[in-house]
Each structure stands twice: as structure tokens, then as C-alpha cells.
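Q: Given only this backbone (295 positions), what sequence would you predict?
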């Protein structure tokens, strides 16, 4: 969505018109990485006492229209505050994100006047309907760098194999290889293999198998002295984890402070917190089954 000069049947505060005097509506957006998401910190400055009164009385709100042409993502978020943090999943954006700021009426304003109208409008009252645009800010374009190392989508990090020991019970994890080796008992391995090709169930498998294994590995690494951790740098799994922690979470695995982290939390963040999605998919699946049984 590109903001274009537009005429309205009532005064609108904008950078391309002179409907108001000594007034302005300016916005800025600061994008930062937030794990596998992007955080947008919006800041708005409104220099017009009449419009500020409408915002404070909740008769108007600041609306940011977000759109990404490459992915088809489109969303409008509103606030009556000058500051607004907002988090978007990286998967929804690719390349340029266009952000168009507006101030929009939240309710009908039957006799709208403003002391800072241009002299051509002074003495007139306007009917502003709900949803009408009252101010237009400059469009902001944010180019998204998607250099994200998502471990949940990096098969070179984990290798899930059958444990040949018939007496084995439960999962065994070995990380003294290029990959993190996860050994499952025979029946569990075959069950896992039959499910792993289904993208619907992938968050469930990540929660049941990958998260516990990764938590164990992180805890073992954190127990090592810093110079000992570096010995793992020849392993692909270590380099991938180190890259993801550094790029996405501003965390360095080769610093002493890493040992103070909660490794369960870190593992979930590295695999993009699959538990919520897993429970949602299981819940929707059970709902579908129950509907069939009721028929």
C-alpha cells in the first residue's frame, strides 16, 4: 500500500496539504530482531491540541497499516498511545514491509472543529464519520533481513536413529558427533518415523523429542569451562546453535554468563517455542475426532 496525495471532503492533517496550520503528525519505526520474530517499536508525535484531545478521549486512534507485497501479509494495528511495541513472525514477511500511519475516528464526530484549521475552513463544522481518516503520516518502508538460523528447520543439526540395544528404554542423546544423535527404542523410532513426514504433527514431535534433547545438550555444554566449550566448535550442531543464539537472541555460548541461563527456556526459544502450536494442533485434531464420533 502506497500513500498517495488524496483530497478529502473535510480537513485532514497531512504532510502534503495545508488544511491545518502549525500542526504535524510524524511517526518513526525501529525494527529489531526478537528471536525468530521481528519487533517493531512505533513512535508517534502529534502536534495539534484538538487531535490530541480526540486521542486522549478515545474518539480517535493512531492506526498503522502494515503490508508486505511478497507474502500478502496485511494488518492494521491501532493505539491511542505515542509508543507501541509490536511483534510479527518472520514467516509473515519477506523483503520490504510497508507501514502507513494514520489517525482515524473511532466514533462519529458530528460537529468537528479545530482551532488550527487553515483560515479557509475556520467557522465551518464538519461531520466526521466513524472510520474516517483525520491525519496521514509519511509512509515508512522497512527492509527485513531474514538471515535467521531456525534450528527446528535445520536437519543437519539432529539425527534421530534407532537404538540397536533391545534393552534400551527411553531416549538417549549423544552430542560427541557432527550432529546431535537422538537414539530411540525400536518401537518408538518406528512410530516417530511414521509421523515425521506429517507437517501437522511436527510441533508435537519437536516438543516430545527435540526440546528435551536440546535442553540436555545445552545443560551439558553450560557445565563446561569456556575454553572447553570451544572444543565443540568443529561440530555442525555447535556452530548452528552458536549462530542462532548470537544472531537471534544476543546470547554468546562462549561466555561465562551463558551458564546462568535457563536451558529449558533457551531450548524452547531455539526451536521457536513449539509447545503452544503443538497443543493447538492436538486440540483441533481431537475436536475433529470428537465431531466424527458424534455423527
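A: Predicted residues:
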Amino acid at each position: 500500500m502506497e500513500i498517495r496525495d488524496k483530497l478529502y471532503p473535510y480537513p485532514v492533517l497531512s504532510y502534503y496539504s495545508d488544511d491545518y496550520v502549525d500542526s504535524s503528525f510524524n511517526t518513526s519505526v525501529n525494527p529489531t530482531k526478537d528471536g525468530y520474530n521481528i519487533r517493531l517499536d512505533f513512535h508517534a508525535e502529534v502536534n495539534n491540541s484538538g487531535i490530541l484531545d480526540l486521542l486522549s478521549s478515545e474518539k480517535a486512534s493512531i492506526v498503522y497499516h502494515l503490508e508486505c507485497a511478497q507474502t500478502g501479509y496485511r494488518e492494521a494495528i491501532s493505539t491511542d498511545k505515542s509508543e507501541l511495541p509490536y511483534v510479527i513472525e518472520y514467516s509473515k514477511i519477506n523483503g520490504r514491509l510497508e507501514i502507513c500511519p494514520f489517525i482515524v475516528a473511532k466514533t462519529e464526530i458530528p460537529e468537528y472543529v479545530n482551532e488550527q484549521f487553515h483560515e479557509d475552513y475556520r467557522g465551518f463544522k464538519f461531520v466526521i464519520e466513524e472510520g474516517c481518516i483525520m491525519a496521514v503520516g509519511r509512509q515508512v518502508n522497512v527492509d527485513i533481513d531474514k538471515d535467521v538460523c531456525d534450528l527446528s528447520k535445520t536437519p543437519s543439526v539432529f539425527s534421530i536413529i534407532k537404538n540397536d540395544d533391545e534393552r534400551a528404554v527411553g531416549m538417549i542423546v549423544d552430542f560427541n558427533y557432527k550432529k546431535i544423535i537422538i537414539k530411540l527404542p525400536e518401537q518408538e523410532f518406528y512410530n516417530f518415523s511414521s509421523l515425521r513426514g506429517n507437517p501437522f504433527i511436527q510441533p508435537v514431535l519437536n516438543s516430545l523429542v527435540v526440546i528435551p534433547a536440546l535442553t540436555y545438550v545445552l545443560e551439558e555444554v553450560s557445565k563446561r569451562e569456556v575454553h572447553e566449550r570451544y572444543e565443540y566448535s568443529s561440530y555442525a550442531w555447535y556452530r548452528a546453535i552458536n549462530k542462532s543464539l548470537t544472531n537471534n537472541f544476543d546470547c554468546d555460548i562462549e561466555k561465562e554468563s551463558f551458564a546462568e541461563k535457563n536451558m529449558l527456556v533457551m531450548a524452547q526459544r531455539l526451536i521457536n517455542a513449539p509447545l503452544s502450536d503443538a497443543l493447538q494442533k492436538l486440540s483441533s485434531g481431537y475436536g475433529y475426532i470428537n465431531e466424527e464420533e458424534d455423527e
